[in-house]
Design goal:
Layout (H helix, E strand, L loop, with lengths): L9 E2 L10 H9 L11 H14 L3 E5 L2 H12 L5 E5 L3 H4 L4 H6 L2 E5 L9 H7 L10 E7 L9 H13 L3 E6 L2 H8 L3 H5 L4 E5 L10 E5 L1 H13 L8 H13 L4 H16 L4 E3 L8 E6 L6 H10 L2 E2 L1 E3 L3 E5 L6 H25 L1
Parallel strand pairs: 1-11, 3-4, 3-5, 5-6, 6-7
Antiparallel strand pairs: 2-8, 7-8, 9-10, 10-13, 12-13
The protein binds pyridoxal-5'-phosphate.
């Protein structure tokens, strides 16, 4: 059967929509593999060693997805009835089916994410339960970096660490986009994750690999994590096939994130010039751009639909309006095309409304 290459739209819904690079496809073709459930896949082992070094953690474990990585970290570090504190607008709280509660009986105690992604420190402290017979026991604090494209800086992480230490709590990082955070903050990865007991990072977001995440922590944590991965059905066999693409993503995709950040800024600046569009600059620090359409007769829904009909895909997002994410495969010329097209769509929609009135 012949599969013809479809004409791809300019797809800015997420950085998860990337196509694997030619180098990734080549690496997958040539990967040396073994049964990873038996610990015999050299490519997976290499990837895990590379990421242990990169993060400065003792050990690492390749997992299917960010969701599985976060879930395993919570299930290993909390028992049934324990409490993990998460932001109310974090991925763990909103988009992972509350898996830790559903499968592990863990209470996800949500506290408000401020507009900069941080959890207010006094609120965080007051959410920590004492070891009282009436309460679930707090075990873990989870942060996300970047959060909706906003990098969370080291001084804030240190303040949370202090609180965690004072209360004997562990810290987990959902670092799906930690490479974007590291670039924006100009900090090395190991420094950014140092204060966390466990960290999950994704190869399939800004790093453009087709599949896979990794969790890192102490040897003891990874030992338990491996058992948990198996019971969740995540023990994979010749998985070096996909780990090889993740290795290529480490080698070739980190340095180019600077282009994504530049292009995101180009997009944010261009959109900000357009009448009836508002852009929130404080949200546009890495590869994500959030904007709103402000015209009394043009709804977000019809605007997005019109863009889609012109081969440009963006996402309606509950918190911040319309989301456009820049990634591998999106060039500055695409950004210019998007800006032009947004102008045309608004003009046409305005004209249609005038005719209809
Ligand atoms: C911040 C964050 N964490 C975790 C995940 C989950 O990753 P996955 O889709 O690989 O399960 C995502 C996915 O978009 C995410 O944005």
């Amino acid at each position: 059967m012949n599969i013809t290459t479809p004409i791809l739209p300019i797809d800015l819904r997420s950085d998860t929509v990337t196509q694997p690079s030619p180098q990734m496809r080549q690496a997958m073709h040539e990967a040396i593999v073994g049964d990873d459930v038996y610990d015999e896949d050299p490519t997976v082992k290499l990837l895990q060693e590379r990421v242990s070094q990169l993060t400065g953690k003792e050990s690492a474990l390749f997992v299917t997805s960010g969701t599985m990585g976060n879930l395993i970290a919570l299930l290993v570090q909390c028992q049934r009835g324990d409490q993990a504190i998460v932001g109310n607008k974090s991925h763990i709280a909103l988009y992972e089916q509350s898996g830790a509660s559903a499968l592990g009986g863990i209470r996800l105690r949500t506290i408000a994410n401020l507009r900069n992604g941080c959890l207010e420190l006094d609120t965080l402290k007051s959410a920590i339960t004492s070891d009282d017979i009436h309460f679930s026991r707090t075990k873990l604090i989870c942060l996300e970096n970047t959060w909706n494209g906003i990098p969370i800086d080291l001084s804030y992480i240190k303040s949370v660490k202090q609180i965690a230490q004072d209360h004997g709590l562990k810290m987990h990082l959902d670092g799906a986009r930690i490479f974007n955070a590291a670039l924006a903050l100009n900090e090395p990865i190991d420094k950014l994750v140092h204060d966390f007991d466990t960290v999950q990072l994704c190869f399939s977001k800004g790093l453009a690999a087709p599949i896979g995440s990794i969790i890192c922590g102490s040897k003891q944590f990874i030992h338990e994590a491996k058992r948990m991965r198996k019971v969740l059905g995540g023990g994979m066999r010749q998985v070096g096939i996909i780990a090889s693409a993740a290795l290529v993503s480490l080698d070739t995709m980190i340095d180019r994130l600077v282009d994504d950040h530049k292009n995101a800024k180009l997009l944010a600046d261009g959109l900000a010039q357009i009448e009836h569009i508002t852009v929130e600059p404080c949200l546009n620090r890495t590869n994500m751009v959030f904007f709103n359409i402000n015209h009394p007769h043009i709804s977000t829904k019809e605007f997005i639909l019109q863009l889609c009909q012109n081969n440009i895909l963006v996402l309606a997002e509950k918190q911040f309006g319309i989301r456009a994410v820049v990634h591998y495969g999106i060039e500055a010329s695409d950004i210019n095309q998007v800006i032009t097209q947004v102008k045309i769509v608004i003009r046409n929609l305005k004209q249609n409304k005038t005719l209809a009135n």
